[in-house]
């Protein structure tokens, strides 16, 4: 006879994560408070999206709807998009300009200024002495929930935490150095795309840190015989483990990047030749040889430069198995028309239809589907070792940054993640 | 409202119907043939168009780039197995000059994945410039402006 005994299974560690973290509604709820509303700075948008006084855009911190507004004095504010009266959504557009700086809830017309402070309540004294609020009703106590807001190089972040260190310290010098690289001159927004994945946000967060899958899942380059092996790559992490940047550069001075399609096709006979190589053309515009820069800033944004595409990808967590990725594409403010057209052509490589990236959406969904009912079972993250290092350079064939993500995540979640119980034969 | 030349109207509607069926039948290699050599095909969110922003999820400004898309779809890209089904409205001819005609039509692309459920995958309109020559119409440019700005998983097959 086979008796089953319930035992405490092993706890998740950076090399082995219990699959339930992708499915459990309680873990999802704990993430909202410990990660997104906890000691982190969450990306909200770009300053360039709201250049003028009164400009706003709706955004999210985890699942919480937030509005980003530029005030009259050009300062940027963020508040939760939830009326202090009965919780209605106050700002109902994706973006726009509120010239008078007042945001009025349509339900009972409570009015807020751009900082989120309640400035007007209809019939506050009632009508003809009847109704209205009590004398000691103080509008100051009924403002929208405000976030602390800080920007770095035009990337705007917000936090619910009053204890967290300043944004610059949260990012650290290494991450800042790479942000500086992309935002070395003023940018202009080129547009958006929104990609909805039936998968958990952490699967995407792992994906953007996973340099191991690049050449294996995304087969565009090999299909067209584009040989990339001779390039240098490097991954850098911050101390917390959860921010990372991965770069690929050409070796110093030998290959002419503008024609690497040609050279590769000569090297790999038999592969299909690309008909229009302008798609892949790379025009270095930053003072280095980096052709690919993917930077994941915990908990909710990826900053990228791939060839001449520039973008942020904001992660919005709508549910344990519902994640939206908001791509904001940009170029530099001084781009001429031809340069913009070149960027648009390069954009074929990335985003929801990206020739070298569309597979990521499918990978996230496959892992979500595959781990249903797998509570108490664990993944295996030991490519390139079982530790977390701040620098790693073996051609991207490692999962160092994925372990780094889990290290930082587990620390923030600590007691919110109880170990699964599993049944084992007695 | 002026009534478009019925022959012209028929040419454009026939092109659209054949275009939709070509993609839905999976004859992807034939798809670039609906375009002239020096063409522009783009798939762009309506929220971008309305705000004067140019970024598209697909932007192919040569027939060669369309062919590259198809080769990548066949051999490189990984996406959920699916059928697509185009429902395209009668075209509205918006202008003509010489043998160049502009027209617009609404479309809905339904998608059926392996779970068997058919979903409205992408709805929008085509904004087209066509070359009408020798009794046939071909696309000089097709801009697919989509309302469905939340793309489900990814967008692999052309719209
Ligand atoms: S819910 Fe906003 S004013 Fe009543
Ligand atoms: Fe990827």
Fraction of residues in helix of chain B: 10-25%
Shape of chain A: globular
List the total number of helices of chain B.
3
The helix count of chain A comes to: 9
Keywords (chain B): Dioxygenase, Oxidoreductase
Organism (chain B): Erythrobacter sanguineus
Protein name (chain B): Anthranilate 1,2-dioxygenase small subunit
Family (chain B): Belongs to the bacterial ring-hydroxylating dioxygenase beta subunit family.
Defining key terms:
heterodimer; A: 426 residues; 8-stranded antiparallel sheet; 4-stranded antiparallel sheet; 9 helices; B: 159 residues; alpha+beta; 7-stranded mixed sheet; binds FE2/S2 (inorganic) cluster; binds fe (ii) ion
Describe the overall structure.
The complex is a heterodimer of chains A (426) and B (159). Helix content of chain A is 21%, strand content 27%. Chain A has 426 residues and is of the alpha+beta class. Chain B is globular. Chain B is of the alpha+beta class and 159 residues long. The chains are: A alpha+beta (426), B alpha+beta (159). Strand 12 (187-197) of chain A pairs parallel with strand 8 (150-152) of chain B. The structure holds FE2/S2 (inorganic) cluster and fe (ii) ion (FE2).
């Amino acid at each position: 006879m086979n008796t089953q005994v319930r035992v405490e299974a092993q706890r998740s560690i950076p090399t082995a994560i219990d699959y339930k973290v992708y499915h459990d509604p309680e873990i999802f709820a704990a993430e909202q408070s410990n990660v997104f509303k906890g000691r982190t700075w969450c990306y909200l948008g770009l300053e360039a999206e709201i250049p003028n006084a009164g400009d706003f855009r709706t955004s999210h911190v985890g699942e919480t709807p937030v509005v980003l507004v530029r005030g009259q004095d050009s300062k940027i504010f963020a508040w939760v998009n939830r009326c202090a009266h009965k919780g209605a959504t106050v700002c109902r557009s994706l973006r726009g300009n509120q010239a008078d700086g007042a945001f009025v809830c349509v339900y009972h017309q409570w009015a807020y200024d751009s900082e989120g402070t309640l400035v007007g309540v209809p019939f506050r004294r009632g009508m003809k002495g009847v109704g209205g609020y009590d004398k000691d009703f103080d509008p100051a106590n009924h403002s929208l929930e405000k976030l602390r807001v800080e920007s770095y190089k035009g990337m705007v972040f917000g936090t619910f935490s009053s204890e967290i260190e300043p944004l610059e310290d949260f990012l650290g010098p290494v991450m800042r150095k790479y942000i500086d690289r992309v935002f070395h001159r003023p940018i202009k927004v080129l547009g958006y795309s929104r990609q909805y994945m039936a998968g958990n946000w952490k699967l995407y967060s792992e994906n953007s840190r996973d340099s191991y899958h690049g050449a294996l899942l995304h087969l565009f380059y090999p299909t067209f015989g584009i040989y990339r092996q001779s390039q240098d790559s490097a991954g850098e992490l911050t101390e917390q483990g959860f921010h990372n940047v991965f770069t690929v550069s050409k070796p110093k001075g030998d290959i002419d990047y503008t024609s690497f399609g040609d050279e590769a096709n000569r090297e790999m006979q038999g592969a299909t030749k690309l008909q229009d190589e302008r798609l892949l053309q790379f025009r270095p515009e930053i003072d280095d040889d980096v052709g690919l820069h993917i930077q994941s800033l915990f908990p909710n944004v990826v900053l990228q430069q791939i060839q001449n595409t520039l973008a942020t990808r904001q992660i919005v967590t709508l549910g344990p198995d519902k994640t939206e990725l908001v791509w904001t594409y940009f170029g530099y403010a001084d781009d001429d028309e031809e340069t913009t057209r070149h960027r648009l052509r390069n954009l074929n490589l990335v985003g929801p239809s990206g020739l070298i990236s569309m597979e990521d959406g499918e990978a996230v969904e496959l892992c979500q589907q595959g781990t249903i009912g797998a509570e108490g079972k664990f993944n295996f993250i030991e490519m390139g070792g079982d530790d977390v290092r701040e620098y790693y350079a073996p051609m991207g064939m490692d999962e160092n940054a994925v372990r780094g993500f889990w290290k930082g995540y587990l620390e923030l979640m600590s007691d919110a993640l109880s170990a699964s119980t599993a049944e084992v034969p007695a | 409202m002026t009534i478009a030349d019925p022959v012209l109207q028929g040419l454009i509607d026939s092109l659209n119907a054949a275009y939709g069926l070509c993609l839905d039948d999976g004859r992807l290699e034939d798809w670039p043939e609906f375009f002239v050599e020096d063409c522009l095909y783009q798939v762009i969110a309506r929220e971008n168009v309305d705000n004067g922003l140019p970024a598209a999820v697909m932007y192919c400004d040569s027939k060669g780039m369309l062919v590259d898309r198809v080769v990548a779809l066949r051999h490189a890209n990984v996406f959920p197995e699916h059928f697509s089904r185009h429902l395209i409205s009668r075209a509205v001819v918006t202008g003509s000059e010489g043998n160049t005609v502009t027209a617009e039509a609404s479309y809905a692309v339904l998608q059926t994945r392996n779970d068997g459920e058919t979903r409205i995958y992408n709805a929008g309109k085509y904004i087209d410039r066509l070359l009408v020559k020798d009794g046939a119409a071909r696309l000089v440019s097709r801009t697919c402006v989509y309302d469905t700005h939340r793309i489900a998983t990814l967008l692999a097959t052309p719209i």
